[in-house]
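Hey,
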Amino acid sequence: MKRVFHFFSRQPIAGLFAEYVMTIAWLIKLRMFSEFKNPEDSFSWCKKNQAVPTKKISISCRNFLMPGFSGVNVWVENLCRALVDTYVITLYCQGPNLKRIKRTDVGNLKIVQLPVFTSTKLKRLPIYSAWNEALKRIITKEKITGIFIAPFSGVETFSLNDINNLKVYTLLVTDERSHRNASLKRNELKEIERFDSRTKCIVIREAKILGNSRFYFFADSKAILQDLQDLFSVSIESQTTVLPINQKEDICNLEEKTHTILFIGRCEGRKGLKTLLQAWELIWFYIPDWELVVATSHGDDVETMHYLERISASNMNCKMLINISDDEKHVQLAKSSIVVIPSLYESFGIVALESMQHGCATLASNVGGLPEVVGDSGFLFEVGSVTDLSNKLFGLASNPKSLIYYGEKSRARVKSNFSDENIREIFAKF
């Protein structure tokens, strides 16, 4: 289906038709094969007997309850956790029902599940535009005012600041276009290999938002600002405050760590898994008491997935875990001594923060926001360099005292720089 879509999307006349076809396919999958997360389960940490603050904030995150993992979803959940004692938060997301609105109250959190298609007119819109219209309708109908926070998709924030004098704050996140083509100008985007009508629509709206002085931005790393400024040829630093993701500190016994090296992430080219597998082939024989665990899910890098299957089936101390749950992810992090993040690009690096939270020694590529997250509590290697990664991975695995030292240092950095209390104070001041 994706190949057919990409073929048609390159044709001038068929581009929009391909978008509608993909929307219909997505809706069928949504209604028949998807299991949405329960809002109360997602916010089980929220106390239901809280005193209700007088301040209010609205947040939009369309795919928050949808199956699958999203870095923006994690950012939004952590944002809610950091601010729920200070603000009454209303989170607008998409629910499984395409006709009726569903509301759930969890303490100071109000989760509103919006239907994407609310009328015959909206049924003729592609999914992104339909969501934007549904969001604008409820903002107008319920006279929502004040502060509104939304992910940066170029759709969820489009035209929202024209309604009820909303003060719109947008989370800046980069994606495949800006990282792979950071030097491209807007008129050159049509040359991108995977360009389609949906991408064009989003790019145009992103450019308009970035050029609008009435919008304010959050960014979770400084690296992201340069990516977006290069892509759209605009200066946005004056409107942007870097607000990192918060992380709740886990209790972790460093003495119970096993000789496990862990990778977590989808099998996509941008995650750099191939670099790690090549490095492991070079050093596994010299550290026979260590095991490489790859927790992944199928992505667009079929070649690397076959590579992983071959290595895990051989006698190389490599274990493959497919589609693990969030709970199992934390189990693996708790017992691992080293976490490797070989990404080719990463706007922030949530896995790095989770690794540090669990007292793992973190070894990450020197791209995007990873150096800002890891700091001096872990190790960086040259992005895509098998030699640099294998040397540093072998050196770290061969030094037990270093593992304990960096594990303790990582936990201290999370507590001092990324705790709920720290982030709440930064947001409140901002």
